[in-house]
Specification:
alpha+beta; four-stranded antiparallel sheet; three-stranded antiparallel sheet; 6 helices; about 40% helix; globular
Amino acid sequence: MRVYVPLTLSGLASVHRAGEVGPGPLTAYAVTPGLREWYVSDDIEELEYAALNRAASASLRLIAGRPEETRRRVVVALDVPDGAAVADPDHVLDASSLGEVRIAHAVALSKAAAVHVDADDAEKDVDAAAAALGAADLGDDDAQFTVDGAEDHELLWFGIQEIPGLIA
């Protein structure tokens, strides 16, 4: 099963040093029954893209809570055994947790399929989105527009062998 773990650039550096994504439990995003129902698609690539975007939004939240953090969203795509990622039954109907899963234990970085990171030119929009996140959560339409501006940036794909260049 493919899962998407939200991180920050400093978090990616820690993962690289440790050789694993962890410690557990990890919050990740995946194609869950709730995500399938919400997205209304049978195309697995579209569904995985939706899960990746959910993880990118979670990465933005991590960034928003850390003013010293580089303003680039980071998501690590991991392959875990079926059953290793479990959706919280108490949050299945919560729209904010669509696709969210928990992984009990750390996962070796060697199980990563890719790393997705914002390009440098996204930093200004990600910074603005991080600053606007609280107001957007409270229903401010202008703030939500600013948050959506960060989501307009596609995350770039990198192989795990490229991590040293990303965190340098």
